[in-house]
Fold each of these.
Amino acid sequence: MAEQLNAANIAYHRDDTPDISDAEYDRLRRRNTALEEAFPNLKRKDSPSEQVGAAVSDGFGKIQHVVRMLSLGNAFNDDDVFDFDARIRKYLSISADSPLAYTAEPKIDGLSLSLRYEQGQLIQAATRGDGTTGENVTANARTIADIPQSIAGAPDVLEVRGEVYMSHADFAALNERQAAAGGKTFANPRNAAAGSLRQLDPNITKERPLKFFAYAWGDLSAPLGETQSKAIERLANFGFSTNDLTQRCDGPDEMIAHYRMIEERRAALEYDIDGVVYKVDDLDLQRRLGFRSTTPRWAIAHKFPAELAWTQLEAIDIQVGRTGALSPVARLVPVTVGGVVVSNATLHNEDYIAGLGGDGNPIREGRDIRVGDWVQIYRAGDVIPKIKDVDLARRDESAVPYAFPTTCPECGSTAIREEGDAVRRCTGGIICPAQAVEKLKHFVSRGAFDIEGLGAKQVEQFFADEWVKTPADIFTLRARFGSGLQQLKNREGWGEKSANNLFDAIDDKRKIDLHRLIFSLGIRHVGDSSATLLANHYGSWSAFEAAMTRATVGDGAEWDDLVSIDGVGAVMATSLVTTMQQETERAQIDRLVSELEVHDAVAVSTESPVSGKIVVFTGTLERMTRAEAKSRAESLGAKVSGSVSSKTDILVAGPGAGSKAKKAADLGVETMDEDSWLALIGDA
């Protein structure tokens, strides 16, 4: 599932060639999130919940966003909207009968863009990219009529954020011109807009009918207003196009009513939308709510239902991922829905094929999926990749239930399904070529070593030619293939400059932050955020490596210390310890580290009175919620643990504190009440 979502992010955000539908992506991500919430210890290292967008392409300069451009959480039905409101109220301790206003606006299906103005002048424009780094498309953005080159009365620094899109009429006219000239036609307006904005030649962009809606902001030298709605009004006064369907709503009932109105008008709009975005209107409350790793707590996208179509399932293929997961893929008779043709769909796992959900209960009323079946698929964006139902009336009498393989199609090793795991996995490990190459792709991915010029395509080729079999081999490429008869510059598609650029890029990554190294190892259940938790806890590679080497699964001081980290459970801890103690894996890791200079972790804040301290919260907090307290402590460089131990520095105990307070007293841990804690961190 994670492999599919990560690939989908790259296809959609970076390459403008999405290969799964919005509905499929949303449902996969929703299921992934639900599993992570239900089983936090099973969270994967490459979890899409820790990612935003995709890394920028090599064709553009890079711009670092001063304020990250995040994605939005999703709601798919009315209950999700009420749950969103309930979560907001719980976080802020606002009662159900107290007023709480939101804004509701159409979710434009286009390409996110950030415009930076200084002293009223447009100085740069950047795509979202991976949320931290975007593509410099300033020259292209200047050609869009909806984007002012200068504005009067604005703050000295103003980053306006919004969506570049193309109207239906302009899209149709563009495709007609492209076809007449023998050029590329586009699948839909979103692809056309994204491809047009990301042209290396701004003269091409100038000829494309792009438009821009402003709906948010990033870096500011002065506030735009006290509320979301007032701030949007001010953007409109600056000369930006804002959406006239944006409305202030008093609570979920009005939000849903506005959603229904927009849904009814959707077909008549001149632009594509795929939902409605709700935001807490009060900007002070937005600041209190803050952000998760990839999404704001104060906003959510209420997505529209998907479109449906029927086609025939021709075959089921099995793909093997980095962790050995056997993922079934449906090969379909190509079908067109909304002008888009697709021929593949995800089938998730063997239970899904058999008609069972993740909880073991029937889905599709228990109807299984068989080769030759007529299947119903749905879309809400670009392609049609997910099967919704099966037409048993059209099933051939000779069709037999699908027998999921018990051996790996890549290496022939036994494929087993462990108790509690929805996925069957190959046991071949490093002898399985599919796993080996996928691990290498993960190693060079954005959150890991992110080596410029060494992407999935290059990894596959080097692996096939046996130039690179393990991560450490990457750092010996120059020594082995930088000179002599067989050298990189002589390979097809390479030259002396590109070869040297790659070698230099590899050498640049010999110095690596600890959390990136831990994430790059591809240890199951250890994602980007988990790697950061581990790095902050242990501080250095030597301390981390020594602890994992000495630890015994389920017992001992090192094990207790590991599972005491808030966010690290027994499943992740077991995976860490067994991987670091597995002879072959450890030999590869040690060989890799010998090529590197690993930087120690740096605390978020080095000046606060709690920086580097281990803090535990217990009992009932009365002036802030537990979630707010944890977020505030971590922002000051503290490490928040879920249990008290001899390493705990501070226990913050509210009314009702029980066993943790007693244990802290027995261990001599400093204990304080909520008021004392707030005074200590300067929030009294």
Amino acid sequence: MDDILQLLNEPLILVFVILFLGSSLGQIKIKGLSLGAAGVLLVAMVFGHFGYEVSPIIQNLGLSLFIVAIGLQAGPRFFRMLRSNGLVFGMIAFCIVIVSVVTTILVAKIFHLSAPLSVGLMTGALTSTPGLAAALQATNDPLASVGYGIAYPFGVIAVVLFVQLLPRLLKVDLQKDLEETNNPIKTAQSPEVMTFKVTNAALHKKTLKELAFSKKSVVISRVIRDEHTMIALRDTVILLGDELVTVGVQGELIAFGAYVGEKVDTHLDNPDNIQLRKITVDADDVIGKSIKKLKLRRNYGATVTRIQREGIELNQNANMPLLRGDVLTIVSSESRLDEVERLFTRKKLAVTNIHIFSISITLLIGILFGMLPIHLPGLGTITLGIAGGPLFVALIIGHFGKLGPIHVRYYGRSNHVIRELGLVLFLAGAGTTAGQGLVEVIQTEGLKLMVGGTFITIIPIIVGYFIAKKIFKLSVIHSLGALSGGMTSTPGLGALNQLIDSEDPAIAYAAAYPFALIFVAIAAQLIVFFL
């Protein structure tokens, strides 16, 4: 036994023992719920209690990798949402975080809790590991991890139970409510399908590429002539009386219709071997390229009518670079669609698509940026640290996809690997440090922490749902999806997906989640000034 304990003094053996035991604990499911990566934190806290400590270098390395992966993942959605109707979900996430901050301050004052414990409780209640990282950077105190570890399990369970029980208590038909309530995703800025009959004599016998309309985001997918349907190609000749099936945003479609002729009913029964198929972008050699560059119409006789990214349907833009995971709606014949699908799904034999240079330079710039002092009038000077700095820089690079020699458009499952590896290394280090004072804190503050964590979890859940449902007039499904995203609760989304066969919960979650990540990380640092 002594020999085994002696082996744990070896830094690498200690790390991997914690990862093994923690991941094993995290995989245990009780009624569909599991601790996940938080299992590593709990096991590490036990080891820390007995005097073992993971090197701070390993902890900081894990933190940096985790934060950069989060930023690269959220970047494309975060800034795009600022310019779209998805901002509604961002506002809901912001309200949830603000309510959490106010509740945390009140709990800290009432129960006389220290700032590190209080911030840790808040990040645990919101199940936000980036928030914990920011809290540790801001407080430089391992007690933040103790608060996180105590509040996290209840934070996971509370959201799942709320999502599952609320529809039953309200006795609401979720599908009917979804169809009859305001949907901020499917607005005038979302693609629609309209069919226009050609009555403009000036267009008779012209090809599609000769049409003089400036709304390039309007896509003609099919031409219907004498009840026969043709695939719309650049050199397709149109005649008076033809019906053009088009996809685009409402305002541009109306302008196009005024130019072409008159609007008629759309009949999409796909005759004449014309098929519509959803194809996921996954091949390395098409990622980063635009639809225009791929020349799908010319080479395959296929037309892309819609692009769905991270659950959000985008208006078609021929010059927009494709990312791994994009879902394209394509119209063509069945045989040609098979060819296009092979184009987008074929894979090169490669061990990994991780670009070490891009990760390294992103981390370096982010860490340096995090060291810069930021003066806040009336509050003093703060730094973003090795959590906030890399997150901010990764968000920008993730948004653009490519800045000079830095390119991150090729991150798919590899990003997930970086994120998970960084997360468990960070939790292993944070847990052993926090575990050194775990028992003493629980003995002196245990009841206060449990009650305080419960309030910090429950109040934002109730207020967040009320704001989404009553103020923004969202459906129950969108409200609960936004709530899950605002609480950064993936288990909550999983429970919601079991209630209805629809993509709407994931869309609402995906729209709120990146905002919540950023707001919690910022709030975790700023809240220290108020405690």
